[in-house]
Specification:
This protein is α/β, with parallel strands linked by helices. Helices cover 35% and strands 15% of the residues. The protein contains ten helices and nine strands. The chain has a seven-stranded parallel sheet with strand order 3-2-1-4-5-6-9, with helices on both faces. The protein has a two-stranded parallel ribbon with strand order 7-8. Helix 4 links the parallel strand 5 and strand 6. Bound molecules: nicotinamide-adenine-dinucleotide (NAD). Nicotinamide-adenine-dinucleotide binds next to helix 1, helix 3, strand 5 and strand 7.
C-alpha cells in the first residue's frame, strides 16, 4: 500500500472509463474518495468513497463537493470530438467551476488533458512539454484552454496543477498509432497517485504514455519531479498491430491521428515552417 492523502480526493468523471479504473485502484490503496459524474456510477461504490450525481455546469454543487478536499482529479467532460456548443459547457465552464473550487479549498487540480491539444504536430517531430499548442479540434482546443486555465490559477492564485496529456488510455492498444500513444490503466493510475502525493508540483505537464519504444514524439516533462516512470509497454502488441494503419494521409501524418482527419478541409497540409 502506498502513502495516502490526509484529506479526501474528489474525482470528476468517475463513472467514465478512466474514472472507474482509477476509483478501483485508489480505493484498494485505502484512499478516501468523493466521486461525481452526470451519469450514475455503474459499479458498487467502494468502501471509503461516496458518489454524488452532478453536472459540471452546476458551480454551487461543485463547490460543495470540493469542500475539505486535498486534490481534485478532473476527468469529467466531453471526451471526444463534438460540435463547439456541446463542448463549451462541460469542458470550459465546468473547468472554471473546478478551478474556483480548488482556489477556495487550497486544493490541487490534476487535469486530464489530451494529446489532442497538440494533435497537429507531425509524427516525425520530437516535442517537449513547452511545445506550442496545435489542437486538432474543438475537444483538443478545450484541453489547451484547460491547461492555460491551470497557468492562470497558478500564477495568480497559487493553485497547483498537473496537466496530463493522455495519449490513448485503454485496456489494450488497438492500432499502429497506439503502439506509440498507449497508456495502460495501471500506469495511468500510478501517475495519478503521484500527482496527488508529490510535495510540490507548481503548474506542470506530463505526457501520458507507457514505456513504448515507438513513442519518439514526446519528451521533457515533469515525471522526475513526480517520481513516476511508466512500467508497462505496448511493444508486446507490435506483431499484431504494426500493419494496422488507416491509409488516410492526414490521420497518419499527425500525432492526433483520426481527430486530425475529422472535418479536415485543407487542400494541402499546412507548411511546418510557418509554425516555428
Ligand atoms: N481515454 C483516453 O485515451 C483519453 C485520452 C486523452 C484524454 N482523456 C481525458 O480523460 C478523461 C477521462 O476519459 P475517459 O476515457 O474515461 O472518458 P469518458 O467519456 O469515459 O468519461 C468522461 C466522463 O465525464 C462525464 N461527463 C460528461 N459531461 C459531464 C458533465 N456535464 N458533468 C459531469 N460529468 C460529465 C461523462 O458522463 C463520463 O462518465 C476525459 O477528460 C478525457 O478527455 C482520455
Amino acid at each position: 500500500m502506498t502513502d495516502r492523502p490526509t484529506k479526501p480526493v474528489l474525482i470528476t468523471g468517475a463513472a467514465g472509463n478512466l474514472g472507474r479504473a482509477l476509483t478501483k485502484f485508489l480505493a484498494a490503496e485505502g484512499w478516501t474518495l468523493r466521486l461525481t459524474d452526470i451519469m450514475a456510477f455503474p459499479d458498487a461504490v467502494p468502501i471509503g468513497a461516496d458518489f454524488t450525481k452532478a453536472d459540471l455546469n452546476d458551480g454551487v454543487t461543485i463547490l460543495r463537493l470540493a469542500e475539505t478536499c486535498q486534490a481534485i482529479i478532473h476527468l469529467g467532460g466531453v471526451s471526444v470530438e463534438r460540435p463547439f456548443e456541446e463542448i463549451i459547457g462541460p469542458n470550459i465552464r465546468g473547468l472554471f467551476h473546478i478551478y474556483e473550487a480548488a482556489r477556495r479549498e487550497d486544493a490541487r487540480v490534476i487535469f486530464a488533458s489530451s494529446n489532442h491539444s497538440i494533435g497537429f504536430h507531425e509524427r516525425t517531430e520530437t516535442i517537449g512539454a513547452d511545445t506550442q499548442f496545435q489542437p486538432d479540434g474543438f475537444y483538443g482546443l478545450s484541453k489547451a484552454y484547460g491547461e492555460l486555465m491551470g497557468r492562470l490559477y497558478w500564477f495568480k492564485h497559487g493553485v497547483e496543477n498537473v496537466n496530463i496529456r493522455i495519449g490513448s488510455c485503454f485496456p489494450e492498444p488497438v492500432n499502429a498509432r497506439m503502439l506509440a500513444t498507449w497508456l495502460s490503466y495501471p500506469d495511468f493510475s500510478r501517475l495519478m497517485a503521484r500527482c496527488v502525493l508529490t510535495g510540490k508540483v507548481g503548474s506542470c505537464v506530463v505526457w501520458g504514455a507507457s514505456n513504448n519504444k515507438r513513442m519518439t514524439w514526446w519528451r521533457s516533462d515533469a515525471r522526475e519531479t513526480l517520481g513516476w516512470a511508466p512500467q508497462d509497454s505496448a511493444d508486446t502488441f507490435a506483431g499484431q498491430l504494426a500493419g494496422k494503419v488507416s491509409g488516410d494521409p492526414v490521420e497518419e501524418r499527425y500525432m492526433g491521428g483520426a481527430f486530425c482527419a475529422m472535418g479536415y478541409s485543407r487542400s494541402a497540409p499546412a507548411p511546418a515552417e510557418l509554425f516555428d
